[in-house]
């Protein structure tokens, strides 16, 4: 019969062996994860290379990181410009009364904006004239709320409020000009 010390030593050897195996398995998994991350990093670096070249060509006076940052800023600025164009494309085709004016003789054109603006203007000899009564002003405000990129409601509000001596007209005029 083995002594108690021999049994403890055998148990310690088994436990040490188990710990070594667990450590080895974890080390292999970690090594595999590191390899995958390194491969992913290499792939990203290859994708980044053309941008690095472009950035250093455009901004040769800057180090690569600063050139990339400046290039990213320019891309962001262009993206914002494109988003602005996309945002205003639909309303940029509309006239004061919310239509394109492209309907031929005998045809009537409607848009959601023109329907909301009904009763807020008169057309005389192909000239539109805004009404400035309280109902029209409320409709202009509704259009501003629902179609904030349509500049002519701001313009109409600026015009009507200035006629009434209301100093808030300047804010509407500023917004109309900003959109236009």
Quick structural summary:
By secondary structure, the protein is mainly α. It has helices at residues 4-58, 64-92, 112-116, 134-146, 151-163, 169-179, and strands at 121-124, 127-130.
Determine Rg (CA atoms, Å). 35 Å
What characteristic shape results from the CA principal axes?
A: elongated
Q: Structural class, judged by helices and strands?
A: mainly alpha
Mean model confidence by pLDDT: 87
| Helicity level | over 70%
If strands are numbered along the chain, what order do they take across the biggest sheet? Answer: 1-2
Name the helix and strand elements from N-terminus to C-terminus, one letter apiece. HHHEEHHH
Head-to-tail CA distance between termini = 99 Å
Q: Number of helical runs?
A: 6
Strand content: under 5%
Low-confidence stretches: none
Please provide the count of β strands: 2
Please tell me about this protein's structure.
- The chain is mainly alpha-helical and 180 residues long.
- 70% of the residues lie in helices and 4% in strands.
- It has 6 helices and 2 strands; from the N terminus they run αααββααα.
- The chain has helices spanning 4-58, 64-92, 112-116, 134-146, 151-163, 169-179; strands at residues 121-124, 127-130.
- Strands 1-2 form a two-stranded antiparallel sheet.
- A hairpin with a 2-residue loop joins strand 1 (121-124) and strand 2.
- The model has no long low-confidence stretch (mean pLDDT 87).
